[in-house]
TrEMBL record:
UniProt source species: Psychroserpens luteus
GO MF term set: dioxygenase activity
Highest taxon above the source species: Bacteria
Name used for this protein in its record: 2-oxoglutarate-dependent ethylene/succinate-forming enzyme
Matching InterPro entries: DIOX_N, IPNS-like_FE2OG_OXY, IPNS-like_sf, Iron_ascorbate_oxido_reductase, Oxoglu/Fe-dep_dioxygenase_dom
Cell division among keywords: no
Catalytic activity of the protein: 2-oxoglutarate + O2 + 2 H(+) = ethene + 3 CO2 + H2O; L-arginine + 2-oxoglutarate + O2 = guanidine + L-glutamate 5-semialdehyde + succinate + CO2
Domain Fe2OG dioxygenase: 168-274
EC number: 1.13.12.19, 1.14.20.7
Keyword line: Dioxygenase, Ethylene biosynthesis, Iron, Metal-binding, Oxidoreductase
Similarity remark: Belongs to the iron/ascorbate-dependent oxidoreductase family.
Pathway field: Alkene biosynthesis; ethylene biosynthesis via 2-oxoglutarate
Length: 315
């Protein structure tokens, strides 16, 4: 496969059983092959997207000392600001050429769960940044819920199989700024090749060139979305749970050609995580003679912890 298939969530949400099934088949097939789709018909309206981008730019335009004051030690970079070069892909020593922010879950109906997560960090200089971040978080979470419902049906599970695992889950909204490149980056790239940790990722901002996905043949293909599309890919947690039936595809963000070094890239992934006690053990229905169990049993919380250490975000 050398292009990313496009699907429309409105097919899944329609009353027409054929349209609903068409969506399930299309996304399931795409995730078995390339692990990515471009998705239209989600719950983000244009106004919200415009507001979010302007707030995100406002934030990264703040003086570096101000941004640094929102960098919180001891929480593995799970909330607030993470400064330039701090995160490196698993197994790579050079830091990625990016700075980013993390919005986390807004727990409103479960005090015990709320205690488990670090609090969201409020940016005092930008009242709207906090509000728009929360609204986007909740709309992407809603979009992801329906995508996971379709995948549950594809896997012959109950439609709502994932619902209780993702309600108040440990998902993260990550606005990223890749600043202009000022000097020869040597071996560093905007984002080195990696697989995502979580269940699924919903990515805003894949409209410009930069994101590349490795297909089955080992070739890097450009992943570009239409203005109204999100890129949605499978992460390692879902790949483990399905015994790699659904593929967590390696992807990267390459540096622009030299004449475009002066331009920033902004992208905003939403990493959908379940609650920490979800067992990622391989589903029985994904094991047979041809597909023996490939992964050890592990919970989502344990798996996340391992990976944050490997990324250099946690000690
Ligand atoms: O910036 C992008 O387009 C992709 C970023 C990404 O893959 C990630 O943060 O996991
Ligand atoms: Fe990624």
């Amino acid at each position: 496969m050398n292009r990313i298939p496009s699907v429309n969530l409105q097919d899944f949400l329609s009353e027409d059983a054929n349209r609903k099934q068409k969506f399930i088949d299309e996304i399931g097939k795409a995730y078995e092959e390339i692990g990515f789709v471009a998705l239209k018909g989600h719950f983000l309206d244009d106004q919200l997207v415009d507001n979010l981008y302007s707030e995100v730019k406002n934030f990264f335009d703040l003086p570096v000392e101000t941004k640094r004051s929102y960098e919180i030690e001891g929480i593995g970079g799970q909330r607030g600001y993470i400064s330039f070069g701090k995160e490196s892909a698993k197994g790579k020593k050079e830091g990625d050429l990016k700075e980013f922010w993390h919005f986390g879950q807004y727990v409103e109906d479960d005090p015990e769960r709320a205690k488990e997560y670090p609090e969201n960090v409020t940016v005092n200089e930008l009242a709207q940044f906090n509000k728009i971040g929360k609204e986007t978080y909740q709309m992407l979470e809603k979009t992801a819920k329906y995508v996971l419902r379709a995948l549950a049906l594809y896997l012959n599970l109950e439609e709502t199989y994932f619902d209780n695992y993702i309600h108040n889950g440990n998902s993260i909204l990550r606005p990223i700024h890749y600043p202009p490149i000022l000097e020869e980056p040597e071996n560093a790239v905007r984002a080195a090749a990696h697989g995502d940790i979580n269940l699924i990722t919903l990515l805003m901002g894949a409209q410009g060139r930069g994101l590349q996905v490795q297909n089955n043949a080992g070739e890097w293909i450009d992943a570009m979305a239409e203005p109204d599309e999100l890129m949605i890919n499978v992460g390692d947690m879902l790949s483990r749970h399905t015994n790699n039936k659904l593929k967590s595809t390696i992807h990267r963000v390459v540096n622009p050609p030299r004449e475009l070094w002066g331009t920033s890239r902004y992208s905003i992934p939403f990493f959908m995580h379940p609650i920490s006690e979800m067992k990622l053990d391989v589903l029985e229905s994904c094991i047979d003679e041809d597909n023996p169990k490939q992964f050890d049993n592990i919970t989502a919380g344990e798996f996340l912890n391992e990976r944050l250490i490997e990324l250099g975000l946690k000690k």
